[in-house]
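To whoever is on call:

I kicked off a structure prediction for a single chain this morning and the downstream step that reads the tokens threw a length-mismatch warning. I double-checked the sequence; it's 219 residues and nothing unusual in it as far as I can see. Pasting both halves so you can look.
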Amino acid sequence: MLIPGPRRVADRAFVRIHRACGPMPGGFERDDGLWSATVARALADLAPRESGRRRFRALCSEAVQRRHCDLGELLDQLLARPGAPALPHVAQVVEDLAAGVRSVVEGEARELLRGAGLPEPLWNPVLFLDGRFLAVPDAYWPQACVALEIDSRAWHLRPADHERSLARANRLTAAGLPVVRATPVQLRREPEPVLRELRALLAGGPHGPHARIGWRRAR
């Protein structure tokens, strides 16, 4: 429950009070008569109070991925919250979102690739083949024309999401792009075979229809 800063109201039962820093935000009235702030504002208010790095990353990633809030609005709110940008879990989320990461497993994969010394890929870029939409891979190295797909039904909220992920990888392969596929479990427990395959493909690129592939960054 967000209230004006000067109000003297205490927590009670499951209700937790959060005092606004500055003016109350604009919001919208729900069907039950209560007023709600935007999702971006709610996440920014949560940021200093949330100690679980993984949980906060999941909340922010899902909010953007499911279009519950605009990426730019969320970044603006997080960066404007006093003291929040200096918090490690907030700084990591801001960096990941700005880079195009849109899920917890992608954030973990980004950390893994960086720790292994691999070049930074584009995250969730929109790819075009001869000017026509091709796919949005989880990660893509444009210099080598190599894609990484992280496959796991457990990390997709609906079966249709998993089916779209498989279809996307199949389109990339049919177009001649090498696609390295891995599960979150592989990346956490036994990442070396995946990293070894990526190193070999990146070193041997560019592959496939390199000159015919265009891209734009994730929004």
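Update from on-call: the warning came from a stale cache, not from the record. Cleared it. Sanity check on the structure: Helices lie at 39-46, 53-65, 71-80, 88-99, 104-115, 159-174, 184-189, 192-204.
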